[in-house]
Design brief:
This protein is α/β, with parallel strands linked by helices. It folds into three domains: 2-64, Nucleic acid-binding proteins (OB fold (Dihydrolipoamide Acetyltransferase, E2P), Beta Barrel), CATH 2.40.50; 70-231, Rossmann fold (3-Layer(aba) Sandwich), CATH 3.40.50.300; 245-304, Probable gtpase engc, domain 3 (Ribonucleotide Reductase Protein R1, domain 1), CATH 1.10.40.50. Helices cover 24% and strands 24% of the residues. It has seven helices and 13 strands. The chain has helices spanning 105-117, 134-150, 168-171, 186-194, 245-248, 253-259, 287-304; strands at residues 2-9, 14-18, 23-28, 48-53, 59-64, 70-74, 82-87, 91-97, 122-127, 154-156, 175-179, 218-222, 228-231. The strands form two sheets. The chain has a five-stranded mixed beta barrel. Strand 9, helix 2 (134-150) and strand 10 (154-156) form a beta-alpha-beta unit. Helix 1 crosses helix 7. The longest helix is centred in the last third of the chain and has 18 residues, at 287-304. It is globular, with a radius of gyration of 20 Å. The relative contact order is 0.13. The structure holds guanosine-5'-triphosphate, magnesium ion (MG) and zinc ion. Magnesium ion (MG) is lined by residues 186-187, 214-215, 231.
Amino acid sequence: MNEGLVIKSTGSTIGVLTAAGAVVDCRVKGNLRIAGIRSTNPVAVGDKVTLEPQADGTTWITSVLPRRNYIIRRSTNLSKQSHILAANIDQAALLVTISHPQTSTTFIDRFLATCEAYSVPAIIIFNKTDLLTPEERQRLDELQHLYESIGYPTCAISAKYDDVQALKQVFIGKTTLLSGNSGVGKSTLLNAIFGATLTRTADISSAHDTGMHTTTFSEMYPLPEGGWLIDTPGVKGFGTLDMQKEEVGHYFREIFALGRQCRYSNCLHCGEPGCAVLPEVGLSIAESRFASYLSILDDADETKYR
Ligand SMILES: Nc1nc2c(ncn2[C@@H]2O[C@H](COP(=O)(O)OP(=O)(O)OP(=O)(O)O)[C@@H](O)[C@H]2O)c(=O)[nH]1
Ligand SMILES: [Mg+2]
Ligand SMILES: [Zn+2]
């Protein structure tokens, strides 16, 4: 049977790299469904799939091989549909900008929690350091310090003006998902690392500082040294998965660590007696992190009534 690796997904057609080294445009066989996942895309970039050439010259994707992991984004609108950003990844790199546009800590924390849920190592790359005012530079320092202290590697760059070749080392030999809000510079970083213009970038509309959503589909790029980088369309928000309330704290490393000292093992850190976490909010646990934790707890509440 023919097997291939999905390297590009535009929705209707899917680019698959075959064992022979060719990229074939394929279509998903109509009745293909992946058990247990309700998503808008049954096949995602990074998937290994089986192929079946048809008599009319087209090729069908007939099945998706079991996934090692996947990163899913639940749409923030009411449809509650999910979209798989990528599958079978080794690590995720989140691009964050302090300004132009501003990435919220809720967004960062939801992304990190999603990575934790799938045991995908995450790194945070702060971009556009060239644009920072002194106050924003201080904010950058604070956030870098915060996330490093929790255990996430961070770095701060200007993808546009710095020499980012050193950053390449982080990506060699691994499949990395590049994610972040629209306009934070994912495609720019990718281009800078490859030293060639592989994907389009766009100017941010200065009126709103919002991105233009230049990248409209996910695509995987091979590194000459080995490994893959996956450019994804900018994400607005990160809905989280159907987590049990008691589970949410597991995906915030520092809350999880401290939570072991709570009197009740299923403590939600919302005012229960003997809670070890709540008294530390604003001290060893950042208020922004706890606020993100609470926002996901809220979601968990919501899913309960779905
Ligand atoms: N000043 C400055 N501008 C940057 C930097 N990195 C990217 N940009 C600009 O920011 C804009 C958006 O960059 P993109 O690379 O298209 O952003 P993206 O994250 O791929 O956006 P989507 O594809 O919409 O998700 C472009 O005008 C880039 O030139 C940087 O380090 N400094
Ligand atoms: Mg892009
Ligand atoms: Zn507690």
